[in-house]
């Protein structure tokens, strides 16, 4: 059993520094390093953009989006004007791209976002971590194709490769499936609800009203079905 505090992003004690101080579980760091070495042989510079994210960090991101201090994007990565959104619509719009604090896979030390650092640098363009950068013609397209073919050989999956009506497509997001699946099996909406009650989470009333749907669509990513 993995401690609830770890699952909620409240305790990083099991994590180790993995390349430029990114935090991951030891087995995930080892598997990623092996995958990185294989990618280099295929001229793909597989590097980490982000890995572990604490509950507190996710809370800052969430509150900033709810309060209009960070942009909220639609499913096609276009900015939304929150003045014209109901609280329910704003809630689900944020969840399309950003997890609730306590419900992010980035809390676990099993999940990370990756890019092709050399290709991005050679492109001469700024890097935004958006889908067009991973599609045909984008600097990370070769990486996206490589991951689809080979990530599974190293124990990784791409949980957000297809849109099911919940979380948006994120070809950059990879997950170490052996450990992540064990954590996913332990997810409990009651634990999440309890933690959120003790925190200054913007939109708390709206979240509480829709928590069952949030858990199914955006935590388990089961979409509308």
Strand and helix map with partners:
Layout: H1 4-7, E1 16-17, E2 23-24, H2 26-41, E3 46-50, H3 55-66, H4 87-97, E4 111-116, H5 117-123, H6 141-150, E5 156-157, E6 173-176, H7 177-186, H8 189-197, H9 204-209, H10 211-219
Antiparallel strand pairs: 1-2, 3-4, 4-6, 5-6
The proportion of strand residues reads 5-15%
Nearest-integer average pLDDT: 96
- H/I helix tally: 10
Distance between the termini: 29 Å
Largest sheet: 4 strands, antiparallel
- Shape field: globular
What letter string, H or E per element, gives the SSE order?
Answer: HEEHEHHEHHEEHHHH
- SS-based structural class? alpha+beta
- Main β-sheet, spatial strand arrangement: 3-4-6-5
Tell me roughly what share of residues is in helical segments: 40-55%
Number of extended strands: 6
Poorly predicted spans: none
Computed Rg: 17 Å
Keywords:
alpha+beta, globular, 225 residues, two-stranded antiparallel ribbon, 42% helix, single chain
What is this structure, in a nutshell?
The chain is of the alpha+beta class and 225 residues long.
How would you characterize this protein structure?
The protein is an alpha+beta fold. It has 10 helices and 6 strands; from the N terminus they run αββαβααβααββαααα. It has helices at residues 4-7, 26-41, 55-66, 87-97, 117-123, 141-150, 177-186, 189-197, 204-209, 211-219; strands at residues 16-17, 23-24, 46-50, 111-116, 156-157, 173-176. The strands form 2 sheets. Strands 3-4-6-5 form a 4-stranded antiparallel sheet. Strands 1-2 form a two-stranded antiparallel sheet. It is globular, with a radius of gyration of 17 Å. The two termini are 29 Å apart. The mean pLDDT is 96.
